[in-house]
Amino acid sequence: MLDADQWSQLLASFVEEARDLARQAEEYLLLLDTQPGNEDAINGLFRAMHTLKGSAGLFSLTPLVDFTHRLENLLMAVRDGQRQLDPTLISIMLRCVDEVGSMIELIDPASGQLEVDTTHQQQLLQALAEHCGEPSPVALIPVVAAASGCSSKGQLQRCASCEADGAWHISVRFHPDLLRNGFDPAAFLRYLQRLGDILDLQLIDEALPALTELDPESCYLGLEIGLCSAASKAEIEEVFEFIRDFCTLRILPPDSALADYLELIQALPETDGRIGEILVNAGLLTATELAEGLALQGAQPEQPQPLGSLLVEQGMVVAQAVDAALNKQQTVREKRLQESAQIRVAAHKLDELINLVGELVISAAGAHLRARANGDGACMETTGLVNQHVEQIREAALKLRMIEIGDTFNRFHRVVRDVSEQLGKNIRLEIRGADTELDKAVIDKLGDPLTHLVRNAMDHGIESAAERLAAGKPAEGRLILDAFHESGMVVIEIRDDGRGLNSARIRAKAVERGLIDPAANLSEAEIHRLIFAAGFSTADTVSDLSGRGVGMDVVRSAIDALRGTVEIESRAGLGSTFRIRLPLTLAIIDGFLISLGEDHFVIPLDMVTECLEVDGQQLTGASYGYISLRGRPLPCLSLASHFGLPESTEGRRNIVVVSQGRQQAGLIVDHLHGELQTVIKPLGRLFQHLQGIGGSTILGTGQVALILDVPSLFRHLQQTVDAHPADPTQNLPHPDVKGR
Amino acid sequence: MAGKTILIVDDSMSMRQLVKMTLTAAGHQVIEAVDGRDALSKLDGQKINLIISDVNMPNLDGIGLVKAVKANASYRFTPIVMLTTESEQSKKAEGQAAGARAWIVKPFQPQQLLSAVDKLVG
Amino acid sequence: MFQLERDIAAPRLELRGSLTIYEVNDARTLLLEALGSAPVQEWQMGLAQLDELDTAGVQLLLSARHFLHAAGGSLQLVEAGSGVLELLDLLHVAQADARAQC
């Protein structure tokens, strides 16, 4: 039998499967939106709901079962051609699938319970019914006190609905004082018959003593009743309302879980065999189930642990669930095999592996350095080989974390659809570069900024159909999500063909908010960049689409946190492009080691273009300046000055040229130490606001090196460059091009 | 099921009439008493299946009636339904202590009364 | 009012009158008297003259049956009138004693 852990695992598997199914359902629905006749999609959609319902039933997740049952019925009609999926119906169904998704998330992973407020589901079902021109669906919580519709009434036979749903099982044990207080069980029984058909009844007289010991006025009796009824549990309880204090009442609805019956057996005072026999005869459980359940009970430690305790519950229910789950997994597995050979790996396991690989990288580098320091040629060769292998492992490990951005992009189909509807605009989403891979950690954190940018483009960027037509554009607006690799980074673009940024308005708002001096002369690009400033928003009304108070500055911070950058290209009337650049991975870095005096720094290798050697005398010692590189001015930053370190007085200095997109800059450093690869350790909270530092790492020597946050250095440099543009007449220092 | 014999005890004629009409229409036989004392006089050996009694009555109120009925050997097992108003909930406790086991709150629907009767003696 | 009539020749009792919670105490005494002397028998109880029976009465009869079973005898309930029969059916009380068949 399975224990609590295994039960949890099974439940977790179900939740995972359910999430998948809900996602599939959404995808099918979106597909059917554009291809209403797509039979594969219709069948797939029906199957998804059907499977969901079945699985939910195994775990007794009643609200989920009930809801998906309704959806399944509707989809059956669609599948059989009796109903069409028009856009409105699809919209409602999408919300229903959302609701299913929400319910899945509400399943308590520890207890397997699902408690929901059914109001929202009722509303959705109502909307469905109205749209389909049907009378309102029977409420999920039945209210009617109907007389039994049982066709076998009076015949003490199971009717078709009993066969289908089973009968109520009512167990009553009377209090000894019941009779002397003037109550008669017969009266209640007769009243019960009004609610339905009593299919079986057992008078329990186990506790009834023989004549000699009997107190005739006390009640020693009990009843086990099988009732076929459309009534609710509350209505059945109401029959016994006057004697609630004089009996122990247990009511099991039709189709109770096996565990419930076993618990009942345990809870009742008579022998298990006796009650079990009654339940088996009533068809509520099979003889096998009874035997197994009782055997389990026997095997439990002596504690009066109710049979319905978690362990057995799991055991018995899971026995069925396991079979069904195994069967399903078999089919799912076969399907998966057809589609692709993939394995699900727990994210934390992967993280552990990456961590260890990171440590391995450091120790291997350390070994190699030591060999080098010792001048041991043979050892250097060996450790060099080790380093090679470690590099390969590192590559492979990091690749494990890479996932295609396609999944993230695809989610936006739904967002664009919903928001277009909300805004009354006609917008089409195009996705490109879906197979571009990024580190999972990066993708996870990308969702929010992307969403914001997409909504922004839809809200402020793309005009209404009327406006577009008036401007000579097609009525349908285009929104493009694109992703590709460029110079060692991942680039993600959000392009729209809308009205573009309104520079004048941006400038005006910035002045209004005191962000710039009214007299300042800014280039178009500078003005555009202002929208990332804190507290900036050009929306006249706070549209809840982009979120109150959540401005572009939050997007910017999120991207900063990913060691990325965001830039804007916009042309009035034509549209805007937001371009996000991100490092490929957050975990391990290929770096270029440099030093300033005793301090070591690492520059991300993929940003390094070339290295130059320059005569220290030629440098003015200022913190920034220009040098001439192949006839063009290259803005340079003195790292020592930037970090407040003493400027070197050595003759030969080095400049590392770094590039970001089309921008280039030179970093003036003391010594170059070549390439290395190492694990990034994030900065502690205390240091997170350090300008220009994006992390730290431990060198093979054990020394700490700080990793430069090149984008932020670029930004800093940009500010100074803007303030002091290059003077073309100035005679700039010439470096010696050194190469990498 | 054959009709039962029910004793209604209430000093309000309209209440007695309402109950009588409701129960006789359902096939039961109804005996009326105007107060507790009157009710006790009906306990003369005839078969009475159920007593429905108001609480506030002159001469002998509902609580007193309950105690008396419980003390009467031939009627001690007869179920008694008290009719109370919402504000008389404190009486409910008293009645319970005396031996009353069922209550209906006034004003009640005739159907409610019938259901209660059926559940208790049906 | 409850009465028990003993059949001299056979192990049979005729029940008369009412057997409700009001009568069960006295009835139990009478039954014990009648059955106690010869429990190892296949007894019958004629219910034709019983005009009122309630659950307390049924319980008493069942208790009598238990008593007889314990001793090795049995109890059959026979000739029940419609009212009594209705209650016995409602409570699924077997009139014919399964034991007696053995």
Automatic annotation (TrEMBL), chain A:
Phosphohistidine: residues carrying this PTM: H50
Catalytic reaction annotation: ATP + protein L-histidine = ADP + protein N-phospho-L-histidine
CheW-like domain ranges (all copies): 588-719
Domain HPt: from-to ranges: 3-107
InterPro entries, A to Z: Bact_Chemotaxis_CheA (IPR051315), CheA-like_dim (IPR004105), CheA-like_homodim_sf (IPR037006), CheW-like_dom_sf (IPR036061), CheW-lke_dom (IPR002545), HATPase_C_sf (IPR036890), HATPase_dom (IPR003594), His_kinase_dom (IPR005467)
Gene3D superfamilies: Histidine kinase CheA-like, homodimeric domain (1.10.287.560), Histidine kinase-like ATPase, C-terminal domain (3.30.565.10), HPT domain (1.20.120.160), SH3 Domains (2.30.30.40)
Keywords: ATP-binding, Chemotaxis, Kinase, Nucleotide-binding, Phosphoprotein, Transferase, Two-component regulatory system
SUPFAM superfamilies, per the entry: ATPase domain of HSP90 chaperone/DNA topoisomerase II/histidine kinase, CheW-like, EspE N-terminal domain-like, Histidine-containing phosphotransfer domain, HPT domain, Homodimeric domain of signal transducing histidine kinase
Domain Histidine kinase positions: 386-586
Class of this enzyme: transferase
Molecular function per GO: ATP binding; phosphorelay sensor kinase activity
Any one Pfam family match given in the protein's UniProt record, by short name: HATPase_c
Highest rank taxon of the organism: Bacteria
Enzyme Commission no: 2.7.13.3
Region listing for Disordered, in residue ranges: 721-740
GO CC terms: cytoplasm
Biological processes annotated in GO: chemotaxis
Protein task: Involved in the transmission of sensory signals from the chemoreceptors to the flagellar motors. CheA is autophosphorylated; it can transfer its phosphate group to either CheB or CheY.
Protein's UniProt name: Chemotaxis protein CheA
Organism of provenance: Pseudomonas mangrovi
From TrEMBL, chain B:
Domain of life from the UniProt record: Bacteria
Keywords recorded for this protein, A-Z: Phosphoprotein
CDD domains in UniProt: REC_CheY4-like
Keyword Membrane applies: no
Keyword Signal recorded: no
SUPFAM superfamilies, per the entry: CheY-like
InterPro entries recorded: Bact_response_regulator, CheY-like_superfamily, Sig_transdc_resp-reg_receiver
Response regulatory domain boundaries: 5-121
Protein name: Two-component system response regulator
The organism of origin for this protein: Pseudomonas mangrovi
Taxonomic placement: Bacteria, Pseudomonadati, Pseudomonadota, Gammaproteobacteria, Pseudomonadales
From TrEMBL, chain C:
Domain STAS: 13-102
Top-level taxonomic group: Bacteria
InterPro entries tied to this protein: MlaB-like_STAS, MlaB_ABC_Transporter, STAS_dom, STAS_dom_sf
PANTHER family: BLR2341 PROTEIN
Protein name: Anti-anti-sigma factor
Lineage per the UniProt record: Bacteria, Pseudomonadati, Pseudomonadota, Gammaproteobacteria, Pseudomonadales
